[in-house]
Automatic annotation (TrEMBL):
One of its GO terms (molecular function) is DNA-binding transcription factor activity. Transmembrane segments: none annotated. Residues 1-105 form the HTH arsR-type domain. CDD domains: HTH_ARSR. This is Metalloregulator ArsR/SmtB family transcription factor.
Amino acid sequence: MVELETPQLNSIFHALGDATRRSMLQVLAEGERTVSQLAEPFDMSLAAASKHIKVLENAGLIRREVRWRTHVCHLEPSPLATAHDWLGHYENFWTNRLDILDRLLRDEDERAANSKKGNDK
């Protein structure tokens, strides 16, 4: 079980809590991008985009590499596995609850069908 209170998990969910940063991660899943390329689709300054990138970097979700004067970003997917594991606990919780509901509804349908058969005689 993944620990509930870890600095890494907190920083991952903080980073994922912003739509701009999630969009940047989605673009990086397609391949490396420069900071300018990541900033381009958004109505923000390069400095503002760099702040978003820094949050992603601090969470370990991306790696920045300097090539001459160009900063190139790469997706680091392993921290997403940590978040996925944590969320998986709740997926199991809801799956179990829905399985119980399914059984109850099937039992109720079966009782209603048996009751109707008894009334038809």
